[in-house]
Design goal:
By secondary structure, the chain is an alpha/beta fold. The chain folds into 3 domains: 107 residues; 83 residues, no CATH class; 108 residues, Trna Endonuclease, Chain: A, domain 1. It is 33% helix and 26% strand. The strands form 3 sheets. The protein has a 6-stranded mixed sheet, with helices on both faces. The radius of gyration is 22 Å and the shape is globular. The two termini are 34 Å apart. 40% of the residues are buried. The mean pLDDT is 91.
């Protein structure tokens, strides 16, 4: 741990104890033991496990449940940002856990935030979906945004022109890449530009392809693409891409992705795809299921990425969660 990280950890530990002291109305620090908890700070008393999340808490619930379960005491989870999302997810688990919103020195009961509303894409954006499909990419709508994916990797997006306000298709992975591509290839017809990108990207999204930036991003979405082309691989008869419960902030950070469909047994279910060990995938998955109004969940992962903590969380969930291994 770097010197800055150690200093930050100590400050968070002091802040947590001060918050607990104020909340319990004590005149001195409560009796207990500071514990190392990398997403923030933790403090163990005879009665409770107190946990403070540092910064963005959207994906903190899984790590908290996994880490605190060994103490077998009620969990008091303190959150400064996104407490509503955390509280919404916490209500689907049987663990004794209370989510608090930190308002300066005061702890307030966190109120579950409603799910994001369904946003339909603008008609002018939908009109460009055939162009995306005819160029060889998959036209996908997520939270009202129309994108074109090459085997799960976003390589174009429909945007409104900042000057004219008209819908247009930008080619590239991420906003900076799209701007750079337009500067270099702006004279190319959009379909030709998109086909050029697809040809360059597709070969790197093949199974067994050599390591390349094009296959290091969006691995979980590549897994979803495979399942969409053959739903039976993950026990489904049909599958369609679906909105995640929170919006993606960028294309580089690995975040589970979602599909909804009907299992081979005829049950409507949500499928959540993950790549790498992700302790928060079960809270993410139950949140996605609640968003889409289903009670059956399939988490699709590599065998090496499944942990006992994830399986224990699945048993604590109020919805049916099963794991499926996709042979990568």
């Amino acid at each position: 741990m770097s010197a800055d990280a150690e200093r930050r950890s100590r400050l968070l530990s002091l802040k947590l104890r001060a918050l607990v002291r104020e909340h319990l109305g004590l005149t001195s620090d409560p009796q207990g033991t500071p514990e190392v908890f990398s997403p923030g700070a933790a403090f163990l008393t005879d009665e409770d496990v107190w946990v403070l999340i540092d910064g963005d808490a959207t994906r903190s619930l899984g790590a908290t449940l996994a880490w605190a379960s060994r103490f077998e005491r009620p969990i008091q989870l303190l959150v400064e940002r996104d407490s509503g999302v955390v509280a919404r997810r916490a209500q689907f688990f049987s663990a004794s856990l209370t989510v608090w919103h930190v308002d300066e020195k005061t702890l307030l009961p966190a109120v579950p935030e409603p799910q994001l509303p369904v946003v339909e894409p603008a008609a002018s954006h939908v009109a460009l979906m055939p162009l995306i499909s005819s160029s060889g990419a998959d036209a996908v709508v997520e939270h009202g945004i129309v994108v074109g994916e090459v085997r799960g990797l976003e390589m174009c997006r429909v945007v409104d022109d900042a000057v004219t306000g008209e819908a247009r298709l930008e080619v590239g992975m991420g906003v900076n890449d799209r701007e750079a591509f337009a500067m270099v290839h702006g004279e190319m017809p959009t379909e030709q530009a998109l086909r050029t990108v697809i040809d360059a990207v597709a070969v790197h999204r093949e199974p067994g392809a050599m390591v390349h930036p094009f296959n290091q991003f969006g691995a979980e979405r590549l897994h979803r693409w495979r399942a969409l082309t053959n739903p039976a691989l993950v026990g489904f008869g049909s599958l369609q891409p679906a909105d995640p419960p929170v919006k993606r902030t960028n294309l580089k950070d690995p975040v589970p992705c979602v599909a909804v469909g009907e299992t081979l047994e005829g049950q409507r279910a949500v499928a959540v795809f993950v790549n790498g060990v992700d302790l928060d995938v079960v809270p993410f998955a139950v949140d996605a299921a609640d968003m889409h109004g289903v009670a059956d969940i399939v988490v699709v992962a590599r065998a090496k990425d499944l942990t006992q903590s994830m399986q224990k969380m699945a048993q604590q969930a109020s919805m049916a969660v099963v794991f499926r291994i996709l042979d990568f």
